[in-house]
Amino acid sequence: MLVIGIAGGTGSGKTTVVNQIINELANEDVTVISQDSYYHETDNLSITERAKINFDHPRAIDFDLLVKHIAQLKKGKTILQPVYSFAMHNRTKDTVKTHASKVLIVEGILIFSHKDLRDMMDIKVFVHADSDERLIRRLKRDITERARDMDEVLQRYQSTLKPMHDQFIEPMKEYADIIIPNNKYNTVAIDIVRTIINERLQ
Ligand SMILES: Nc1ncnc2c1ncn2[C@@H]1O[C@H](COP(=O)(O)OP(=O)(O)O)[C@@H](O)[C@H]1O
Ligand SMILES: Nc1ccn([C@@H]2O[C@H](COP(=O)(O)O)[C@@H](O)[C@H]2O)c(=O)n1
Q1: Measured in Å, how far apart are the chain's first and last C-alpha atoms?
Q2: 98 alpha carbon to ligand 1 midpoint, in Å?
C-alpha cells in the first residue's frame, strides 16, 4: 500500500486536491481518510462547551485511533472510519466501512505534526494558499456547508486558528516532499502527483 499524506492549512484546498488526484484512479485502487473524522469524541460536553474547543491544536485529534486505523489498513484489514459533524462539534454514531487498497490518501491540517503518523507516509504533500485566500474560502465554505456564521468564523480565526496555524501547520512544510501552490487551481501540480502515484503503482 502506498500511503500519501496531504497536509496544509484550512481552506488551502486539501480536499479539492484529493478529489482531483483520485478522479483518474480506479475507485477500487484508492482509499481516503480524513483527519477531521478523528476529532476526539465530546459526548460529555454541552454544545456550548464543545464550541469553545481549540480544534486547531494537535491535542484535539485522536491520533492513537488514526495511527491504529492506518496500521490496520496497511495490513489489509477493513476499518470503521468515524463520521464527524461540524454542526454538532462531535462524532456522529455512524461509521464508514473503509477497505484497504493500493493507495491510501490521508488528509488533514495536522497530520505532519505527529511523528508516528508522518513515518507511515511514503509521499508527503503540502498544499499552500495564502492566509487571506484561505480565510475567504473558509468563510464561504463554513457558512454554506458547516452551519457557521461570519462572527463564528472570524472569532475562531483570530483566537485559535491563526496562532495554531503559525505554530503547528506552517512549520510542517519542512517535512513535505512536494509543495503545491494552490492560490489558483494548479493542474500541473496535480498531474505531477498523479504521475508519481502511477509510477509507484507499476
Ligand atoms: N485553487 C482554488 N481556487 C479557488 N477555490 C478553491 C481552490 N481550491 C479549493 N477551493 C475552494 O475553497 C474551499 C475550501 O477548499 P477545501 O478543498 O475544502 O480546503 P481544505 O480541505 O484544505 O480545507 C472550497 O469551497 C473549495 O471549492
Ligand atoms: N467542530 C469543528 C472541528 C473543526 N473545525 C475546523 O476545521 C478545520 C479543519 O478542517 P479543514 O477541512 O478546513 O482542513 C480546522 O481549522 C478547525 O478550526 C471547526 O471549525 N469545528
Answers
A1: 12
A2: 24
Q: How far apart are CA 17 and CA 114, in angstroms?
A: 22
The candidate with the shortest Cα–Cα distance to 127, out of 3, 38, 18, is 18
Radius of gyration for the chain, computed over Cα atoms and rounded to the nearest angstrom: 16
Q: What is the DSSP letter of 121?
A: -
From the CA of 13, how far away is ligand 1's center (Å)?
Answer: 4
Averaged pLDDT, groups of 10, the chain, 202 residues long: 97 97 86 97 97 98 98 98 97 97 96 98 98 98 96 98 98 97 96 90 80
- Check if the interface score ipTM surpasses 0.90: yes
- Would you say the CB of residue 36 lies under 6 angstroms from ligand 2? yes
Kind and range of the H or E run holding 28: none
Domain 2-194 sits in CATH at 3.40.50.300
Domain assignments of the chain as residue spans, ordered by start = 2-194
Q: How much is the pTM?
A: 0.97
